[in-house]
């Protein structure tokens, strides 16, 4: 068993005495997705980046299909990273599916976390009765079948949809390349875990300041989903960004930084 730091390719920068900020990336990505946002916090924060096992430069030998068969396995890793680095009062920033990993990590070890920042969160992607997640069961089945049959083709088709910002094709190209670098078998399982999870009940009982960043024209986490998350977490702050698409840390990094800074400055 590898140690936590190489397992997740943990990197630490910024102020050693500053309040820690841990950034967790979403499906098909790695820590480089934070490169336009994380450095802005280095002057006064201890900035921690990492790759989920199975992504980026993580130790692929540590990938256990049973452990990572649910988001709880990823949440456990986040807690382990924080404990390994002896972090407290952590600002945990999660993007997309990692926002739910952040919620689960908080429930595992609430003593470690002082604030949550959830970017494009969705506790359930599949519509369910009055709940509108944005996808029907048929949509998700088709999406997963397409990924099973042609990983590279799926990546090329889905990345532009997820990124949005059709007038900036270089952004979609970067996300496509990131998806394509993921080992296909791992990508298939991670996609199933992501799109079939239901974490709505886990939104209850969060007792730290929480910021929800919602983009417009987000094909993965529609605005109604962000509003649902906001209603379920008492005292949370919902900010509607001008940014479009699902990856504002790449498409609108300055606006993303400003929103997080304002949240932290407010006493979070």
Give me some keywords for this one.
10 helices; 268 residues; single chain; alpha/beta
Describe this structure in words.
This protein starts with a helix and ends with a helix. The chain has 268 residues and is α/β, with parallel strands linked by helices. The longest helix has 14 residues, at 71-84. The protein has helices at 4-7, 71-84, 97-108, 137-149, 151-163, 169-181, 184-196, 223-232, 248-251, 253-265, and strands spanning 11-14, 19-24, 45-49, 90-95, 113-119, 210-216, 237-244. Helix 4 packs across helix 5 (151-163), helix 4 (137-149) runs antiparallel to helix 7 (184-196) and helix 5 runs antiparallel to helix 6. 48% of the residues are buried. The mean pLDDT is 94. It contains ten helices and seven strands. A seven-stranded mixed beta sheet has the order 1-3-2-4-5-6-7, sandwiched between helices.
Note the topology.
Elements: H1 4-7, E1 11-14, E2 19-24, E3 45-49, H2 71-84, E4 90-95, H3 97-108, E5 113-119, H4 137-149, H5 151-163, H6 169-181, H7 184-196, E6 210-216, H8 223-232, E7 237-244, H9 248-251, H10 253-265
Parallel strand pairs: 2-3, 2-4, 4-5, 5-6, 6-7
Antiparallel strand pairs: 1-3
Helix pairs in contact: 2-3, 4-5, 4-7, 5-6
